[in-house]
Amino acid sequence: MQARYSGRVPINCGVVFAGEQAVGEGRVLNLSLPGCLIESSKPLAACEYLRLRLFLPKSLRPLNVPLAAVRWSQGGRAGVEFIQTAREEQAQLTRFFRQQSSRADEDERDIWQSERTVNHR
Question: Using one digit for the tens of pLDDT, what is the confidence trace for 85-111?
Answer without folding.
Answer: 999 999 999 999 888 887 655 544 444
